[in-house]
User: What shape does this take?
Amino acid sequence: MFGRALAPAIRSSKRSLLLLGPLQVGKSTLLASMEPDLTLNLAHPATFREYISRPERLERELAATGDSPTTVFIDEIQKVPALLDLIQVLIDEHPRRHRFLLSGSSARKLRRGQANLLPGRIHLHHLHPLLACEMGSKFDLDTALAVGSLPGILAESDPDERAADLRAYADVYLREEIQAESLVRDIGGYARLLDLVAAASGTILNVNKLCNDAQIRYETARRYVEILEDTLVAFRIPAWSGSSRSALVAHPRIYLFDLGVRNALLRRPLDRPLDDERGLLLEHLIAYELHRRQGGLWPELELFYYRTKHGLEVDFLARIGREVWAIEVKSSRNVSPSMLTGLRRVGDQVSGVKRRILLFLGARPQSIDGIEVLPIEDFLETLPA
Assistant: This one.
């Protein structure tokens, strides 16, 4: 089992929580490690049938435990949203008796059912695929670029089994999750759009192009992209907007949540990254390492990308409080002057830039005209965990 950076905060808190994350990122494993007194897995058909028809059964079961504090783990809570109303009553009536550990993989399912997300009563956390620091000594850059960082995938030592598992993941997601939750009607159109989003991952979101290429209506494409985000399979990084807003690109970038899933959807080799995609994949890796820290691990972090309509671009702007880090990612072991152009000029366009960082594949740090040139793994080691 991989150690999770979120685990100490969950273990030290006495508050109930809702843990959201895509399929197979380790939500169940993490919450089960808290040694709950009662576990309900709503993905199990028999358990689902019992509680979807009689959610009040949970209250009777907890009443039987007496007055001693009880920790209750409910997996895939979005399948029976009515349980959330009951949990609110139990928390309000017995605030110290029960602690609820809830997991879910679909914010859309909860919202669509107008679920009570218990504001003010529970803490909301997100769990993502593994960070480099969570892999520890098992972190290998090429492996991360080829097969991503889903815990179950990385735990599989056989390369052929690992590849088969990754390719099955997309099919399981499409067939079991999307169809079972009745989120889409045209599974063929959705499958085409998912492949297109995988191909566009890391680029500016263009819904018009997606709907034309997938041969679906604009509103359908827009809704399908929202489903990808709500089921936590994709996320956006917004464009920076500043004083020179009229000169800036305004549309967000979209990213699929895991490189291994992206590569499997696009039928890329899963033993090593393609050389001509290495730069794009390294940008994904840094996007993941920053995005996955937003909220719980690095609450003051806001993440953007920067691009002007005249082509000046910096991969990421990280705003931390009053200061901004400008970050550029290159798949080179050496630094050329052209690589520094965006970082040199961004300080004139964006106020508050305190650090200008070029990440590369070289072995040792450098400093060039006030720009920090850092090996990627050195940079990752400095991030909050």
Remarks:
- The chain has two domains: 7-126, 132-382.
- Residues 28 and 352 are 41 Å apart (CA to CA).
- The chain has 17 helices and 14 strands.
- The two ends are 17 Å apart (CA to CA).
